[in-house]
Automatic annotation (TrEMBL):
Alphabetized UniProt keyword annotations: Ion channel, Ion transport, Membrane, Sodium, Sodium channel, Sodium transport, Transmembrane, Transmembrane helix, Transport
Subcellular location: Membrane
The protein's name: Uncharacterized protein
Family: Belongs to the amiloride-sensitive sodium channel (TC 1.A.6) family.
Pfam families: ASC
Gene Ontology molecular function terms on file: ligand-gated sodium channel activity
Signal sequence, renumbered to the chain: none
Length: 566
């Protein structure tokens, strides 16, 4: 046993334990097994116990810190490449100011009959004396979606006048890109317009610093255009005689006499659902030109948190199209988890869906409570009397989605500036007068071109020119969008105190207080093995084999035993 003689080993202490103490790498405790005086052995033993107690006290603090959990964030600049997002442009007033006033006789009879029938249904359920705002809201929410979308909503041909992508620097001879803009039926805004970009287009816009240019029109109602077609009838209250004309319709409150013009621009991670509640957005007001610089920040969970705080390989999520009911596939996102759980909880409470939230495919058959075409009278009455703690529902949804968020996701933000557009000195009359009215099927654009030609021929009154410029100032929006940088920062979320850090701190405390490392703990396994072997030999009646004597020739004694007593 490294030079420790059996004569010096106390008879009351097992030889294996004394051998382990003598060979231990822990400073101090090995001196207890030497041939020092008993006083020195006791002193070293007490010192070892004192520092061992200090180590245990500090180690307990580390264990509490490890079990306490908690997360921390680390931030690294220019870590990941910028990915150009999906862009949606949703009109603040989704109802067109031109198409519903230029309907054919058949379409006008179709929509007006539906409005009259729903108004009568409202009287039978709630009575004719209820507020006109509630009547207007329920009639609008109960109209068949395909009728509202086809006959009332804004359309791409009128709302999106131009879309291009051009270089901002370098050779201007590069061919521009003409991205497609497609309508997207949205339960909150009825209709949005999505900018469709291919992967190659996205890379070119970012790598070559191109800008995306859009010219939008809010398609406001303009009485001076004198549409010749049939119009949509107002929603009437038979008891009070009040009316809500189409230009005052509001999806959210029923009637809004002071309508808000413009668009909401949604900045959405590629492939994710365009949620008003979860994605970055800002307003675009008419009569302005906007310069928008997009920024991205990527968040990633560390390996230790995957499967606990996030889902590693999140599957795609299927939504039900608000217009057609067909399946739409989107990338997994916090919005998808939020809507799926919220709709489920609300449906359990009411038996139907109270608000116009997006529906995931698994809940596609959920009825909407305030849609009189889908909900029976009994269920309608239950909805009115049921009380729900919405803050508690939201808390349950947040808890359900806390561990289901993606392990890597992007967040976007935008910096923008704006100026008046078009300026009063611009050749707006010539611009519209030279457009071919025959190539435009949109009623408002055709009449705007005719008005511009009349102004250029100077066959007009001052009132006509004032109305022309008033329409432009209330309808036109110009937007230029660029990526602020080709790279983006990354935020890594990791445990505030990891197992690796715990082991490192524990090893540091062992070295500080006891003078050993984590490897010293393995010596206890050797001690256990030697005690177990001795017990088995004793149980079998065998004798413990004699340990070989240390060679006496030129070998040097162990440094630990080459000591003298003071």
């Amino acid at each position: 046993s490294l030079g420790v003689s059996r004569a010096a080993t106390p008879a009351k202490m097992p030889s294996a334990v004394m051998d382990t103490l003598a060979e231990s790498s822990a400073h101090g405790i090995s001196r207890v097994a030497t041939s020092r005086s008993r006083v020195m052995k006791v002193m070293w033993f007490l010192l070892f116990l004192l520092f061992l107690a200090l180590f245990v006290r500090s180690a307990v603090t580390l264990v509490i810190r490890l079990r306490g959990g908690g997360l921390t964030k680390s931030f690294e600049l220019d870590k990941v490449p910028f990915v150009f997002p999906d862009l949606y442009f949703c009109p603040n007033n989704p109802y067109s100011g031109s198409y519903p006033h230029d309907l054919s006789q058949a379409d006008a009879e179709l929509i007006n009959t539906a409005i009259a029938n729903l108004s009568a249904e409202f009287d039978s359920r709630l009575g004719p004396t209820r507020s006109i705002e509630l009547r207007a809201r329920l009639v609008q929410s109960s109209l068949p979606v395909h009728l509202s979308y086809r006959l009332l909503a804004q359309r791409r041909a009128q709302s999106v006048l131009q879309t291009t992508a051009t270089p901002t620097m370098g050779p201007q001879s590069s061919f521009p890109i003409f991205p497609r803009v497609l309508p997207f039926s949205h339960p909150v805004s009825l209709v949005c317009f999505q900018l469709r970009l291919t992967d190659n287009d996205r890379r070119k816009i970012v790598a070559e610093n191109w800008q995306v240019n859009l010219r939008l029109s809010t398609d406001p109602y303009f009485a001076e255009f004198n549409y010749s077609g049939r119009s949509v009838d107002p929603i009437r209250s038979p008891a009070t005689g009040e009316e809500v004309p189409l230009q005052d319709w509001s999806i959210s409150v029923g009637r809004e006499r002071l309508q808000e013009a413009g668009f909401t621009m949604l900045i959405v991670p590629v492939g994710s659902y365009p949620s008003f509640a979860h994605e970055a957005k800002f307003q675009l007001a008419p009569s302005n030109s906007y310069s928008v610089a997009l920024s991205m920040e990527e968040t990633e969970f560390s390996e230790e948190l995957r499967g606990q705080q996030c889902q590693g390989d999140s599957e795609a999520v299927d939504f039900s199209d608000h217009l057609t009911g067909r399946k739409l596939t989107f990338a997994y996102s916090p919005a998808a988890c939020y809507y799926e759980n919220l709709v489920r909880l609300v449906t359990q409470a009411y038996g139907c869906m109270v608000f116009s939230f997006p529906l995931t495919w698994s809940l596609k058959n959920t009825t909407r409570c305030f849609n009189m075409s889908e909900t029976g009278r009994d269920q309608f009455n239950v909805v009115q009397t049921t009380k729900t703690n919405w803050s508690d529902l939201d808390r349950q949804v947040q808890e359900a989605c806390r561990s289901r968020q993606p392990c890597r996701y992007q967040r976007y933000s935008a910096e923008f500036s704006f100026s008046r557009w078009p300026s009063i000195g611009s050749s707006v009359v010539a611009h519209f007068a030279e457009m071919g009215s025959s190539s435009y099927s949109t009623p408002a654009t055709r009449r705007l071109i005719d008005m511009a030609r009349s102004l250029r021929a100077r066959n007009h009154s001052a009132h006509t020119e004032a109305q022309f410029r008033a329409y432009l100032s209330e309808s036109l929006i110009n937007v230029r969008i660029v990526a602020r940088s080709t790279t983006s920062p990354q935020v890594v979320i990791s445990p505030a105190y990891s197992v690796t850090a715990f082991l490192a701190d524990t090893g540091g405390l062992l070295g500080l207080y006891v003078g050993c490392s984590l490897l010293t703990l393995c010596e206890f396994f050797e001690l256990f093995y030697r005690l177990l072997s001795g017990a088995l030999l004793k149980h079998r009646g065998g004798a413990r084999p004699a340990e070989p004597e240390a060679p006496q020739g030129d070998s040097q004694p162990d440094a630990k035993n080459d000591t003298t007593e003071a």
